[in-house]
Amino acid sequence: MTEPAARSGANALIWPAALLVVSALGWGILYSLNRLATTDGIPFIPYVFWMGTGAALILLGLGAAFRTLPGLSWEHVRGYLALGTISFGMTYTILAFVAPKVPAGVLGLGATLTPILTYPAAALLGMDRFRAIRTVGLVLGVGGVALVVAPETSLPTPDMAPWVLLSFAAPVLYVANALIIAWLKPPPAGALPLAGGVLTTGALFMFVVMAATGQWWWFEGPMTAGDWALAAAAGTMALVFYLMVEIIRLAGPVFFTTVNFMIPLTGIGWGVLFFGESHSHWIWLALVLMLAGLFLVNRPSAPRDGATDPAS
After folding, report:
1. pTM beyond cutoff 0.85
2. Least enclosed by CB within 10 Å: which of 14, 56, 193, 278?
3. Is 30 exposed, middle or buried (0-12, 13-18, 19+ CB in 10 A)?
4. 25: enclosing H helix or E strand
């Protein structure tokens, strides 16, 4: 690659990199907003429903204004259903449920596990090959989880450990969602219509869950801190889902996965800002292990015998 071409390639990544930083700040603050809203008395299922509904209305309104509403073919709709129910509805129901029980910064550690766990799942399903370097990364990630939940002094109280383990079901759901999308191969769509379709189906799924559980809730009286946190979460959710699709469109999925290095740090930072959280040396060591594991799992393997590495 010539020097001008290299400079042009670097310049092309400046805008996606800026969007990536904004995206990481958004994903990270959601852990604190979840905690603010649910500790203020908003039930966790209605919280996720109203967050998804608010985000969907924002995106659909923008889509209508720019004439880019979600496609309604079956291929589009099944993609929305997979992403909306698993990536939004189920995942954020878990995160909202555990939010009052675990420090927000600790929940952010789970972001590192999605790429780490995607590797063995894809390999077992024949979508990737087992590689020694990535297996070491998987072991480091699992070691990080053990350091969070095993030592008695890792968390503020030992009884938080089961809730942390439950929160780590969220990255497992993200892995399942990614594999389902790879299997479905939905047609390409712009960032705005895809994000709008996903969050609309996610909100509809949560409405069914809310009706089935009878856990109704509505804004009552003057706005409280929890109500404002919910409103902020809806706007943030609309932004981060849009940015996720847009960054992947501009720079590709591998570039977007680097956000997983940043989310734990932004999650910890927002937790310190909102709640004055501090963490034990076990949590910081776990973060180092998880980030090292993420680096190794994301590290492309060198092609052998002229072959192209499909996971690169």
Report:
1. yes
2. 14
3. buried
4. helix 14-39
